[in-house]
Amino acid sequence: QEIRQGPAARRMMARPYLMPLSAATPEEILLPVRPWFIVLTLVLALFANLLPLSGLALTLRPDFLALVLLYWCIQEPRFVGVGVAWCVGLVMDVGDGTVFGQHALAYAFLAYAAEYFRRRVLRFPPWQQAAQVAVLLLLCAALVLLIRFVGGATMPRWTYAAPPLVGALLWPLVSAVLQWPQRPPRSSPER
Predict the structure, then answer these.
(1) Mean pLDDT across the stretch 150-174?
(2) Cβ of 14: how many Cβ atoms within 10 Å?
(3) Each residue of 98-114: pLDDT tens digit?
(4) Cα 5 off chain centre by
(5) Residue-level pLDDT at 106
(6) Full-model pTM
(7) Which of 59, 117, 121, 176 has an alpha carbon within 20 to 30 A of 127's alpha carbon?
(8) What gap in Å lies between CA 149 and CA 127, rounded to an integer?
(9) pLDDT tens-digit profile of 126-145?
(10) What pLDDT is attached to residue 143?
(11) What is the mean predicted confidence (pLDDT) over 61-77?
């Protein structure tokens, strides 16, 4: 019996050791995450937040640190929680040169909300999780805005809401990239 296969299936049979870059299915068992990988992703997200940008790129740049922090709070609450979010927020405040504690408070709130809604978010596929992530990122940005407003800053333009929405659109990609090292290698087919 010969089974008909499409071109995508033939390519995967030719390269069975490569893992696809997509989010894991609920049936797939992932390897445990390594703590050094969590720290590495948080540091890279911090650097992405501190990159000097201008124009449209600056207007649309999401808070990568909040996005990665949210991912790890949902996926690995044993390792990343409110305390880690507070410390990472203080580092972000120092790096950004803003009011000390504003990102710390916003990230701690984000981590608490992520832990509270964790099971709800995990029920859905990543593209549906993006809607819930958008709400959480908008609340985080609103809290930062409130702290800035109380501190005497002027009201920003309407584009202040764009970065959390861009972050929500990036959520499926972020989920796939951060899960990729946890996927077990595929075994080669028996010949």
Answers:
(1) 89
(2) 8
(3) 889 999 999 999 999 99
(4) 35
(5) 95
(6) 0.81
(7) 59
(8) 33
(9) 889 999 999 999 999 999 99
(10) 94
(11) 95
CB of 104 closer than 8 Å to CB of 90: yes
Residue type, 67: L
Residue 113 to residue 117: CA distance in whole angstroms? 6
DSSP, residue by residue, the chain: ------HHHHHHHH-TTSPPSSPPPTTPPPPPPPHHHHHHHHHHHHHHHHS---THHHHH---HHHHHHHHHHHH-TTTSSHHHHHHHHHHHHHHHT-STTHHHHHHHHHHHHHHHSHHHHHTS-HHHHHHHHHHHHHHHHHHHHHHHHHTTPPPP-GGGGHHHHHHHHHHHHHHHHHHGGGSPPPPPPP-
Start-to-end Cα distance in the chain: 17
What is the band of 10 on the pLDDT scale with cuts at 50, 70, 90? low
Cβ pair 139, 113 in contact under 8 A: yes
Residues of the chain above pLDDT 70, percent: 82
Non-local (6+) Cβ contacts of 186 within 8 A are 16, 17, 18, 19
Chain Cα centroid distance, residue 136: 12
Token pair for 150: 């109380």
